[in-house]
Amino acid sequence: MQVEINSIWKLTDVDGYEDGLYRLLACYPDYTTVVLFQLVEGSKLLRPVAIDLPFFLRQTEKGAISPEKYPKPHFQLVDDESISESHRQKRDERVRQIKDLIADPRFLFTLVTDSRSKVLAEHAKKQGVYVQALYRSLNLYWKYGQEYNALLPAYKNSGGAGKARVAGQVKRGAPIKLSTPSIAAPPSVNTSERDKAIFLKAMTRFGMKGKKVTFRKVYDQMLKEFYSKELIEADVEDGTTMVPQYRAFLYWVKRLVPRQELIRKQTSLGDFERNHRGLRGAVTDHTALPGSCFELDATVLDVHVVSEFRRNHVLGRPTVYCVVDKESRMIVGIHVSMEYASWRAGRQTLVNAFTSKKEYCARYGIHIEDSEWPCRHIPQRLLCDRGEFICKDAEDLAVPLIGHLSIAPPYRAELKGIVEHRFNILNEDLIHDLMGTTRGRHYIRGDKDPRMEAVLTLDEVNTMLIDAVLEHNSKVFDSLAGQSGLLIEAGLSPTPINYWDIHLQKLRHALSRADEATIRARLLPVDWVSMTSKGIRLNDDMYYESDHPDFEDWKVIARSGSSWRLEARLDQDNSSSIYVRLKPDEGFSRCWLRKASRTFDERHQADILFFEDWKKLEKHGAMPTAKSVERHQRRKEITQNAQKEAAKATPLKSKSEKTKGMKERRKQAILDARVSGEKPEEQHTSPQMSVLDERNEERRKEVVSLLKRKRGNKK
């Protein structure tokens, strides 16, 4: 244990010494003695005491003497330029009186060892002051650390600051100033102790009930509740109301009710914890590395979007999910859709955050390299809201993949301050400049309706959001500069992507990786598809193909009528591919849309459902038209007329007579059709026709029919 000059020690149950705090003024190793001065409040004059050094050290080992702290008064912790001239003169005069004494190194030893020493008396006579004045100056000098500023005048308690005074009968406070001499100021009353108690009761009853209330309203309610008698008497007697004025009420309330208590009692517990409580640290205090914690949250974008099929149809405001790495401020995943905040949309966001972004960006026409958005990792912990993730599906699917899922308490948005602030940044940098934006506020009468200005589709907003995220990840944030020394060592600017990359290069992160098929199998919704001769069928119009070596053989088997069901995982945002368990003993394999189904390429699941519903409605509403009825009636009339004409024909002797000679009759009908179809002038100008008919008839007679083989004879 080191024994230092001016150190403070606490003595407890030490023989020969009072319990309390002591300052060590000097140490004399040659005499194995240290000099202590007791620190007490008040103006009592004390002398230093001596204590044996070995005894002092033994008591410190036993714990009877322990180190402590003793604060200095605030008026001593200033520079000379801040001290008034009069105070400096008083300090310098006191220093001059004791300077020779404190400059003598043996003065303290003599004072504590010789109780009859006349050093102080002789010095006081020499300086022309009283001995008590020297003692008073020395006591201040020893008490406050043996510094010259310890002798400054101590006026901190002068005037009784902060102490309550007993009020007299004389009217206190500034009188009311009136400019008209003929008008007399009304009489008023002093604030009594009873009035102060009423002020506190009124504030408790009317002003601190969980909502913000003006002092004027509390004052009016107080008069009606606690001063009703005085008010009624003054009204009946037509006199002056002798009650405390509003100025007096305001003066005493601000002194009787602590400001922090008023703030706490005029709001709810959640609002106080979120917006008014004192901050005890930073959001990154518990996340030392990238990947320690991802924050996930959703909000409704401040912009209206229109339908991709019909631009004059407004769909409303989409929901955006955002996943941010708490340590590096890196936006690691986003998801924009017309879905409300739910586990259905939240799982799609996690898939985006945990997988490569190159293909995702290419879908929207943005071609990047993996190094431009290198986020496809799984964190140690995921912090999210209670709404969509406090469900059994999240516990069963996300927890085994992530490891730890933290649910924020209700009404505590500040616990996800990083992702909440990212929404503000995206709004300021992009959303509030778009056509159809609400600018984050309610519609005000006279403003243009933002829905009437909406022109952007969901995909167009998504494309611009991706650009904004890439811009954000490359933006300089001052808060990142002091979090890690790796940026300074590498000479990199404090951007999220630099912070992310350098920590991954130095292996200082808490990130992990998983196969994309595994991620999608864990998080995407389960569905069933069928193996058919055309491929894997999702519905009546969507077929997928795979590069599995047995895929073509399976189509052959399915074509024979032996189709079977397969388990699949569907991406709600992109129907271009699905993940299918092709064999029971295998994992999930990626399958792509066939060329015949390219109409549904990169379509959202909502578009597919819309197409299916449209087909059902069209089929359900397909009723015969007037033209169809007319055609049906015509066919019916023709049939009936044919039946009547057939009934007029000569009856046949047998059924075979109706079909006998059918070939010859058909040839004759063809010849008749040819002749009847020619123009009259062509019939007269074609004498060769009769000659050809005669030749055909001769050839027909020369043809010899061969015997036909019986059908049942295979020989």
UniProtKB/TrEMBL annotation:
Entry GO MF terms: nucleic acid binding
Gene3D superfamilies: Ribonuclease H-like superfamily/Ribonuclease H
Annotated Basic and acidic residues bias: 675-684, 692-703
Protein's UniProt name: Transposon Tn7 transposition protein TnsB
Protein source organism: Grimontia marina
Residue ranges of the region described as Disordered: 622-715
Gene symbol of the encoding locus: tnsB_1
